[in-house]
Design goal:
Elements lengths: L5 H8 L6 H11 L5 E2 L14 H10 L13 H13 L10 E4 L1 H11 L7 E6 L3 H9 L3 E8 L5 E2 L1 H7 L4 E7 L11 H14 L2 E5 L23 E7 L12 E7 L5 H13 L5 H12 L4 H5 L4 H14 L4 E2 L8 E2 L2 E2 L9 H12 L1 E2 L1 E2 L11 E4 L4 H23 L1
Parallel strand pairs: 1-13, 3-4, 3-6, 6-7, 7-8
Antiparallel strand pairs: 2-9, 4-5, 8-9, 10-12, 11-15, 14-15
Length: about 400
C-alpha cells in the first residue's frame, strides 16, 4: 500500500488534535494532575452554558429529529439565516444561498474541496486559525500566508497581500473578528481587501464566527455587505456567540457576484448531497438562537464575565517583564509576544511543553497558528477570574525562571 501523504500534512496543521504537548497533557491528566487549560475555546468546559431557550427547543424537537433533511438544511433555520443576512446588510441572499453544516468547520473544508485543484493558491492570514491552512492543503491547494501586523493592532498587511497574489491565487481568507489575535478590522481595511479581490477576481472567504463577541462598544461589519460585484462565502455558527460548540450547528452563505461561479456552486451542492445533511438537532437550534434574546451582549458588556476576564488577563500579562499584548477588541483569545531579547526561544513547542510540565498550564505555541517566529503564544481567557489569575501567575513564575536561566 502506498503511504498516505496527507496524514503528514494534517499532523502539521491541526494543533489541537496532534502533537507532543497535547499528548503530555493527556498523560498528566490520566495521572491525576489538574491542568489549567488555556489552549482551546471549548466554552462549555468553563461553565458558560448555551441559552436555556435553545436547550429547551432542542429537547422539544428531538423526537422529530431522527430523519434526514434537505442536503442544504431545513427551510426554517436557513430562512432565519437569510433574515440575519438582512440585519448584517448582506444583500441578495435567498434560502438557496444558505448551507447548514456540522459546524462552520465542515463547511470551510467543503468550500475548499469544491474549489481547489493542484497548484491553486489561497491567501490565508498569519497568524491563522489552522483549520483554514489544513483545509487548503488537504484539498490539493497551496496555502500562502499573508502577514498581519502586530504594530498595527494585527491588521492585515495590504501590501504583503498584494505582493503574494499570483495567477494561481483563487481566493483570500479573512478571519474577522480574529482568532488568535482578537483583532477587529475597520471598514477601511475591509474595503482595501475587497478592492484587491475585485481587481484580481478572487473569492473572499469570510470567517465571522465571533461577530457578536465584541468588547468596548465595537461594531462588526460583514465583508459581504461591502460589495455586490465580488463572490463571497461567509461562515458563521452557534459555537461561540451561543456557547454551543458541541451542537455542531453552522452555516455558509454564498453571496455577491455568482455569475461566473456556476460550476463552483454545483460542486458545493454535490458535496452537500454526498454527506446527506447536517445533524438535525443542531439545525433546529439555529432559528431559536438567531431570533431570541442575544445573551452574549451581557457577557461582553463592561461588567460581563468575558469582558472582565479579558481585562484581567491583559492586566496580568502586561505586568510580566518582556511580555507585550495587543488588547483584544473581540473574540476569546490573546496572542502575547515574548521579547526575543528577554526570552531567546528557538522552539516554541518545546517552550509550551516545559510550561505544561513545570506549571501544569496548557497554552498553544504561536507557530501552531502558522506564525513566522517562535515568539508568541495563544491563550484563552475563558476560565473564571480566580483560575485565570492562578494560571497567569504560574506563567509569570515560569518566565521568571526562564529569565534567570538565560541570564546565568
Amino acid at each position: 500500500m502506498k503511504p498516505i501523504a496527507k496524514s503528514a500534512k494534517l499532523a502539521n496543521v491541526c494543533y489541537d488534535i496532534r502533537g507532543p504537548v497535547l499528548d503530555k497533557a493527556r498523560q498528566m491528566q490520566e495521572e491525576g494532575h489538574k491542568i489549567i487549560q488555556l489552549n482551546i475555546g471549548n466554552i462549555a468546559a468553563f461553565g458558560l452554558e448555551p441559552p436555556d431557550e435553545i436547550v429547551q427547543d432542542m429537547i422539544r424537537n428531538l423526537p422529530h429529529s431522527a430523519g434526514y433533511t434537505d442536503s442544504k438544511g431545513l427551510f426554517a433555520p436557513r430562512k432565519s439565516v437569510v433574515h440575519y443576512c438582512q440585519e448584517k446588510k448582506i444583500a441578495g441572499v435567498t434560502v438557496d444561498d444558505v448551507y447548514l453544516g456540522n459546524g462552520a468547520s465542515e463547511l470551510i473544508t467543503m468550500s475548499m474541496n469544491a474549489l481547489l485543484n493542484t497548484g491553486d493558491e489561497i491567501l490565508v492570514p498569519a497568524p491563522d486559525y489552522p483549520l483554514w491552512t489544513a483545509s487548503v492543503a488537504l484539498s490539493g491547494g497551496t496555502p500562502v500566508h499573508y502577514l498581519c501586523d502586530e504594530q498595527a493592532e494585527w491588521m492585515p498587511d495590504i501590501a504583503d497581500i498584494r505582493r503574494k497574489i499570483t495567477p494561481n491565487t483563487k481566493g483570500i481568507v479573512v478571519i474577522n473578528p480574529n482568532n488568535p489575535t482578537g483583532a477587529l478590522y475597520p471598514d477601511s481595511v475591509l474595503l482595501e481587501i475587497v478592492e484587491l479581490a475585485r481587481q484580481h477576481q478572487l473569492i473572499v472567504f469570510a470567517d465571522e464566527i465571533y461577530d457578536k463577541t465584541l468588547y468596548d462598544g465595537n461594531v462588526h461589519t460583514s465583508l459581504a455587505s461591502l460589495a455586490d460585484d465580488v463572490l463571497f462565502l461567509t461562515f458563521n455558527g452557534l459555537s461561540k456567540n451561543y456557547r454551543s460548540c458541541g451542537y455542531r450547528a453552522g452555516w455558509m452563505i454564498v453571496s455577491g457576484d455568482k455569475r461566473h461561479a456556476k460550476d463552483y456552486i454545483e460542486g458545493l451542492n454535490m458535496l452537500a448531497s454526498m454527506r446527506l445533511c447536517a445533524n438535525t438537532p443542531g439545525q433546529l437550534a439555529i432559528q431559536t438562537a438567531l431570533g431570541g434574546y442575544q445573551s452574549i451582549k451581557d457577557l461582553v458588556a463592561p461588567t460581563g464575565r468575558l469582558c472582565r476576564q479579558r481585562d484581567l488577563a491583559y492586566q496580568l500579562l502586561t505586568q510580566i517583564p518582556g511580555v507585550s499584548v495587543v488588547k483584544p477588541k473581540a473574540a476569546l483569545y490573546m496572542f502575547p509576544r515574548l521579547d526575543p531579547k528577554v526570552y531567546p526561544i528557538e522552539d516554541d513547542q518545546q517552550f509550551a511543553y516545559e510550561l505544561l510540565a513545570e506549571e501544569k498550564v496548557l497554552i498553544v505555541q504561536g507557530t501552531g497558528f502558522n506564525w513566522i517566529a517562535p515568539d508568541h503564544f495563544r491563550l484563552v481567557f475563558l476560565p473564571n477570574s480566580d483560575d485565570l489569575a492562578e494560571a497567569i501567575g504560574r506563567i509569570a513564575r515560569f518566565l521568571a525562571h526562564y529569565r534567570k536561566r538565560h541570564t546565568a
